[in-house]
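Standup notes
- DV: blocked on the single-chain target, sequence here:
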Amino acid sequence: MIARSDILQLQGIHKAFPGVKALDNVEFALTSGKLTAVLGENGAGKSTLMRIIAGALRQDSGSYLYEGQETVFTNPKQALEAGIAMIYQELNLVQELSVAENIFLGREPLNRWGLIDYPKMNAAAGKLLKRLDLHVSPATVLNTLRVGQQQIVEIAKAISYEAKVVIMDEPTSAISDHEVNVLFQIIDELKKEGVAIAYITHKMDELERIADDFVVMRDGMSVGKGALHDHTHDEMIQMMVGRNVDSLFQKTEHAFEQVSTPLLEVRHLNLKHPTREGDFLAKDISFHVRTGEVFGIFGLMGAGRTEMLETLYGLHPKGSSKEVLVDGTSVDIRSPGDAIRCGITLVPEDRKAAGLVLNMSIADNASLPALDRLSKWSFIDRNAEAVHVTQAVERLRVKTPSILEQVQNLSGGNQQKVILGKWLAMNPKIILLDEPTRGIDIGAKKEIYALIDELALSGLAVVMVSSELPEVLAISDRVMVLSEGRNTAIFDRSKMSEKRIMEAALPKIRKS
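- DV (later): unblocked, structure below
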C-alpha cells in the first residue's frame, strides 16, 4: 500500500530493449521531504527506471502516478515543466555555452525587445552559484571549467527549476570533498522544502549522511526496500547480490603451480586523468596471471577497468606508466602493435565501434591482423585467407552460411566469436577481454564462457573485465577488484563470494 505522502509512485513497470529485459514488474515510490537511495549493481536497471521517471524513456507497461494522477511524459521537457528534474551522471550540458546559458537553456529571460536579458540571467545564475559555493562568473564558458565544477553547474540547473522531484545519478562521482559537503547541505535544504529526492549511488558511506529510505534493484527488479536506519550495509549488499550463479556455467578446475613464472606480470600501472590534475584513472595497479588462468577483473562504473586494459595494451602512451613482463622478460609496450608483437591481444568493450568493420565480411574481418602473413607482393592470397578464416570459424563454432557473410548480419554472440577468432589466429599468449558477453543473450553467453574455458585449458593467460558479478564468479580462477582506479582486493577462487567482491568494489568516502 502506497502512503499518501508519496508524490510519485510506479507500479508494475516493465521495459524491454531488443534482446534485453531492462525492468520487470518494478515497484517504486518517492516521498516528499525524503531522500530514497537507489542501490544495485551495474545493469540492475537503476538508470533505466530513473529515465522513465524523468520522461527520457517510456515504460512498456505499468502505472506511473505523479501527485495522485496517472501521468504520461513523452519527453524530459514535459517532466521538467511538471516539476521533475534529473541530474545525469553523464553531463547533459553544452560545452560551448556559458554557465548561465546552460542553466537557463530553453527558458532564457527576455527583455522588451524579445532578446535574451543577459544581465537578468547572469544575476539569477549568480545567486544559484553562490548557494552552491561555486566561485565562477556566470559568463564563464563551460568548457573552461573542470569536470567537478561542471557537475555543480548541472546541479544548479536542476535546482533552478524549483522541482518537486529531483533525481541524482551518481552526483558525487566527479566532485571534490568540499563540493560533496556543499551538495549534501543543499540536499538537506531541499528535503526541508519538501522536495522528494531519488539518489543513485555506489558509495554506501554516503547513505548515513543523507538517506532516509532505500530501494534495491537487481536484474531489472525491485527486490528490497525500507527505512535506512532499520538495515545494515551488509543486509543491503546481500540484497544487491543475492543470486544463485551455479546454473550459469560449470568451470573446469585447473591446478596451478605456485612457483612457476607468471605468463604475464604487470607492475605499478598508472594512467593520469586527462582533465583533473593530480588525479588518476588507474593508480599503482599490480598483478600477475599464470599460464592457463582466467584472471577476472571486477569493478563498478568508473572504477578504471577499461582504462587499465587499454593502458596495458599500449593505447595511452602519454600520461601512463607501467612495467610489463611476459614469460619473465620485461617488454616495452607503447602501442597496440607492440602488444601484439609480445603476444598480447585485446577484445574491446564496444565490439561494433572498436572490434569490427561491420560492412565487411567475416573473412575480411578475421584476416585483418594477419594480412602480412596472407599476402604475396601486396596481394591477398585468397586461398590462404579462406583456410585461415575457416579454421577460426570452425574452432569457435560461428553460425554463418558463409565466411563471405557481412559481419553486421550476425548475432551479437557470433560477432564476438569473429573478434576472438581473428586474434586467436595470431597465436597469442595472452588475451585481454573487456566485457566479452555485453549485449548477448544467455545462450550465447554460455558459449562464450565455454570458449574462455577452452582457451585457458589450451595454455593462454586470459584477463577478463566484467561488470557482472555472477559472470566473474562463474569463470574466474582469481579476481582482482578495482575501485576508483585502485586495486582494493585480489581473491583466490576458494575465497570468492559476491558479498566480499561487492564490499571491495564499493567506493569509500576519502577523508579530507
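- Follow-up: The CA atoms of residues 266 and 324 lie 5 Å apart.
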